[in-house]
Amino acid sequence: MKVKEVAELTGISVRTLHHYDEIGLLSPGRKAESGYREYTDEDLETLQQILFFRELGFPLKKIKDVLNSPSFDRREALLLQKKMLLEKRSRLDQMIALVEKTIQHAEGEIQMTNEEKFQGFDFSHNPYEKEARERWGGEAVDRSNAKLADMSVEKRDAMAAKMNDIYRKLAGLRQGAPDSEEAQSAIKDWYDLLNNNFGSYSLEAFKGLGQMYVADERFTKNIDQFGEGLAQFMSKAMTIFADKTK
């Protein structure tokens, strides 16, 4: 199957499939007579594995490491994915039940204690934290968490507003060149904001963060809310900024 046909079959964008190819996660395994590369049935099975892992919140780098491991076994992976998805469903069922009880409470049908209102919530795990620790070290993450914990609500709100302003400014520039003076000025504002509020970012860490914006679809989805293609634009601009500032 050609890339467009795979995109239509799976609902994944052609751009995402091209990105998987570029990073070596999934490359079409057969070359047709026309010269175009085509996806085999085995490639589609691998793509299904990737999507199962993505549904469970695995970053692309981790998925690539798992699939390339000599010990990888597709059946074992499917059994593990089934177990994890069942656990995820159980958590969602708990949250749905909590919402239903809260509706009944709001309508006066039942009374909930304050403890019952928050049963089922679990903020003890940050899905990005383990990844950040592995990439940049635990010390930088701890400094970042400590700074956030020390911030007042007003300061956090002000910081969030400033972040959104920078996102919007970069979104307005994303059709232009990432190495333009305006783009680089806005990216410097982004670099300064991160360093002032989330601990010390080295230029290499800043560049790596930009790469995660496109390598991890969770980041891409959040950033592209301000404009399609913004994550890709920021990633390029951050790489240019880091390389030029060294």
From TrEMBL:
<dbReference type="InterPro" id="IPR036244">
    <property type="entry name" value="TipA-like_antibiotic-bd"/>
</dbReference>
<keyword id="KW-0010">Activator</keyword>
<dbReference type="GO" id="GO:0003677">
    <property type="term" value="F:DNA binding"/>
</dbReference>
<dbReference type="InterPro" id="IPR047057">
    <property type="entry name" value="MerR_fam"/>
</dbReference>
<dbReference type="GO" id="GO:0003700">
    <property type="term" value="F:DNA-binding transcription factor activity"/>
</dbReference>
<feature type="domain" description="HTH merR-type">
    <location>
        <begin position="1"/>
        <end position="69"/>
    </location>
</feature>
<keyword id="KW-0805">Transcription regulation</keyword>
<keyword id="KW-0238">DNA-binding</keyword>
<dbReference type="InterPro" id="IPR012925">
    <property type="entry name" value="TipAS_dom"/>
</dbReference>
<dbReference type="InterPro" id="IPR000551">
    <property type="entry name" value="MerR-type_HTH_dom"/>
</dbReference>
<protein>
    <submittedName>
        <fullName>MerR family transcriptional regulator</fullName>
    </submittedName>
</protein>
<dbReference type="Pfam" id="PF07739">
    <property type="entry name" value="TipAS"/>
</dbReference>
<dbReference type="Pfam" id="PF13411">
    <property type="entry name" value="MerR_1"/>
</dbReference>
<keyword id="KW-0804">Transcription</keyword>
<dbReference type="InterPro" id="IPR009061">
    <property type="entry name" value="DNA-bd_dom_put_sf"/>
</dbReference>
